[in-house]
TrEMBL record:
UniProt name for this protein: Mutator family transposase
PANTHER family for the chain: MUTATOR FAMILY TRANSPOSASE, TRANSPOSASE FOR INSERTION SEQUENCE ELEMENT IS1081
Keywords noted in UniProt: DNA recombination, DNA-binding, Transposable element, Transposition
Residues annotated as transmembrane: none
Leader sequence segment: none
Record family assignment: Belongs to the transposase mutator family.
Species of the source: Tomitella cavernea
Role according to the record: Required for the transposition of the insertion element.
């Protein structure tokens, strides 16, 4: 990695940090998190099946699903003129969705005519897209299906079957196999760079910069 690359990484990291700090400060100043902070201080868990993050994910997904149903029906829940519309709400059904923060138990709203097709959590969908990306990343990193299954259960509390994980990994298995069996060049030059990271003041900021101490070139 060159000095320019290192500076670009630092700049991207700083921009991300600034955006997150701004959002966190705005939320804290608005008082929207006061109750959550109070509950955490009182000993409530933030993660896990009964954690606050899981409950917030559940609330956000259910709110989105109900908004989708409202758009499908054409009227808000509790509308006194609901009887004038041809279709109506018809309770909900339970559905478990695996996410990156654990399994979320949803109440998916239904309509009487059975024509409602949610897009936020689709029919037949049992896991959110972010979890698929994590499975593929772990698989590409060399973990077995059993290892992935154990890792997800112990880290995020998501119980996925061997078959489910296999289905996800099979989607990229052919591509991985082609990459592993790709023809190799006869010669690969390899450069080893040794450097130390030092903090350098750049205007009003202190940045990490790499300073090379040695270089070796090999042919493999």
């Amino acid at each position: 990695m060159t000095v320019q690359d290192d500076e670009a990484v630092d700049q991207t990291r700083q921009q991300r940090r600034d955006r997150q700090n701004e959002l966190a400060d705005r939320l804290a100043a608005s008082g929207a998190l006061d109750e959550i902070f109070t509950r955490i201080d009182a000993g409530e868990a933030l993660t896990g099946e009964t954690g606050l993050l899981n409950a917030m994910m559940k609330s956000a997904l259910e709110r989105g699903l109900n908004a989708e149903l409202t758009g499908h029906l054409g009227y808000e829940a509790g509308d006194p003129d609901a009887s004038a519309f041809p279709n109506s709400r018809n309770g909900s059904h339970a559905k478990t969705v695996a996410t990156e923060i654990g399994d979320v138990e949803l109440r998916v709203p239904r309509d009487r005519d059975g024509t409602f097709t949610p897009m936020l959590v689709r029919k037949g969908q049992r896991r959110l897209d972010g979890l698929d990306a994590r499975i593929i990343s772990l698989y590409a990193g060399g973990m077995t299906i059993r290892d992935i299954q154990h890792h997800l259960a112990t880290t995020v509390g998501t119980e996925l079957s061997h078959e489910t994980i296999s289905k996800v990994t099979e989607e990229v298995a052919d591509e991985v196999a082609r990459w592993q069996q790709r023809p190799l060049d006869s010669l690969y030059p390899v450069i080893y760079l040794d450097a130390i990271i030092v903090k350098v003041r750049d205007g009003a900021h202190v940045r990490n910069k790499a300073r090379a101490t040695s270089k070796s070139v090999f042919r493999w």
